[in-house]
Amino acid sequence: MSSLALAVLVSGHGSNLQAILDAQCRGLIATEIQVVISNDPKAYGLMRARRFRIPTEIVPHQQFLEREQFDTAVMNVLARYQPDLVVLAGFMRILTPAFIQAYRGRLLNIHPSLLPMLPGLRTHERALHAGLREHGASVHFVTETLDGGPVILQARVPVLPNDSVERLTRRVQTEEHRIYPAVIGWYAQGRLSLQREQVWLDGAPLSQPLRWAPL
Ligand code: GRF
Fold first, then answer.
1. Fewer Cβ within 10 Å of end Cβ, the chain: N or C?
2. 110 C-alpha to ligand 1 centroid (Å)
3. Rounded to two decimals, what is the model's pTM?
């Protein structure tokens, strides 16, 4: 069976990239990361890719006056690699509609909250301040609404008494590293698609996001 060609976009630490790499290397998902692209030359995710001899590309966003120009530059890089699926893994740039439309149904993101709760930044801090009892992470298809695309899979974690942002972040990230490779694996098996605004899995639309339940 041929493997699914991935491009992974990172801006920082790249722990989700690492989880995908590990799943790929262990043969758990039928993927091949063709390229890792970053807007930040210092992103540690680039180091992780190099360690696995995966091509890296840097498109520094500061070099572009307009978002559209930056996105065109990233799309030009992607055009050279022709990925089947583009995976945003801690990519901290907001993509323009032209980019999103070009990769519609082939563009995934992971967000550190139980969407639609807490879109945007600093979600762990905000979860603590809001006194939430439950928090988590969501993998979703990217559409034009920021952090608003249809959610595929979510993992929930408890918010514990006296939790710190660091502890809560770690608890959520542990789950992120499980759910992102899982969803990518489903996509690689041809089980997952976006049709209009709805997620389809195994030939049927999802009425609500799936909840991660370890096997
Ligand atoms: C993750 O928490 C992810 O949900 C968010 O950005 C963070 C990236 O972490 N989109 P890493 O770079 O994968 O370690």
1. C
2. 7
3. 0.97
